[in-house]
Design goal:
Helices cover 56% and strands 3% of the residues. With 284 residues, the protein is mainly α. The structure holds zinc ion (2 copies).
Length: 284
């Protein structure tokens, strides 16, 4: 039920709506020492609109999972007996499988929800313009083997050595650390390319392993890549050109091989078009 999807014909202009402006005005009133409940309720609702638009742009659908994303947070912010927003964040992260560290993270849909959550953050936080790949290398490098495959499925163009770097982050301040994370991305990328399945039987084995393990985080990066790709293929209703896919993956790897560290590159602003679905580079 939660994995049901609604087609594009429902696409509506969520981010240019007066509802979004209403939430944005109120959420901007948040300040650390002032009243936080209503601004955070409004911020969460604005974030939910951004999530849905990004989900539609990337997958061509809205899903029930997307519609109920972070649903309990506004209610928790309004509970008078919970006196700190930090507690609410912690509670939410502990029980929501789309957050790193939640023990319930087990399905491919959880990883996709995590990816969209990261990728839409820049829409509501212009001061933190990180896309999903940049969020991964900045904040969750221990999850590169799980989430790099998902980044490659959804936005292969964003996986590159020149990315937005926060000036205050370790990636900028400690070149040795930067080199280490860069090497980890290269290694995982190489592993995905080298162990990509070749035959139909190999593909079937991956689906079988996932069904048996019932936990996607125990699969290898190449397996996570294939399982996410399969889901994306179903969502978009397309066929995948495996030759093109291998070629594009190798081009990404070549881009990494000629460098040793991540370097800074500023972003363009995200343009909104609620009807637009991202052109899929691996499609036939
Ligand atoms: Zn969340
Ligand atoms: Zn969220």
């Amino acid at each position: 039920m939660i994995d049901l999807q609604f087609s594009s014909s429902f696409a509506c202009n969520l981010l240019n709506s007066s509802m979004r402006r209403f939430f944005a005005v109120r959420s901007s009133k948040w300040n650390e020492n002032g009243p936080w409940r209503i601004p955070l309720v409004c911020y969460t609702l604005e974030h939910k609109l951004a999530f849905l638009e990004r989900e539609h742009y990337l997958t061509g659908h809205y899903s029930v999972r997307g519609i109920v994303h972070d649903w309990e947070k506004p209610f928790l912010y309004l509970c008078p007996w919970i006196d700190s927003e930090k507690k609410i964040q912690e509670m939410h992260r502990r029980f929501s499988p789309h957050h790193v560290g939640c023990p319930k993270t087990s399905k491919v849909e959880h990883l996709i929800e995590m990816y969209i959550d990261w990728d839409c953050a820049a829409i509501t936080k212009p001061d933190k313009p990180l896309n999903a790949f940049e969020t991964l290398v900045h904040f969750y490098p221990e999850y590169i083997n799980v989430m790099l495959p998902v980044c490659l499925v959804f936005d292969i163009e964003a996986v590159k050595p020149r990315i937005y770097l926060h000036p205050w982050h370790k990636l900028v301040k400690e070149p040795e650390y930067n080199r280490e994370i860069f090497a980890k991305v290269c290694l995982t990328l190489n592993h995905i390319i080298e162990t990509l399945p070749q035959t139909r039987n190999d593909f079937r084995k991956i689906t079988g392993k996932y069904q048996k393990l019932r936990n996607i985080t125990l699969c290898s990066p190449a397996e996570i890549f294939i399982l996410t790709l399969k889901k994306q293929q179903e969502s978009l209703g397309i066929d995948i050109d495996m030759e093109k896919l291998r070629q594009l993956l190798k081009e990404v790897r070549n881009g990494f091989f000629i460098r040793k560290i991540f370097t800074h590159c500023p972003h363009d602003e995200i343009a909104h078009n609620c009807k637009k679905v991202k052109k899929y580079p691996f499609a036939v």
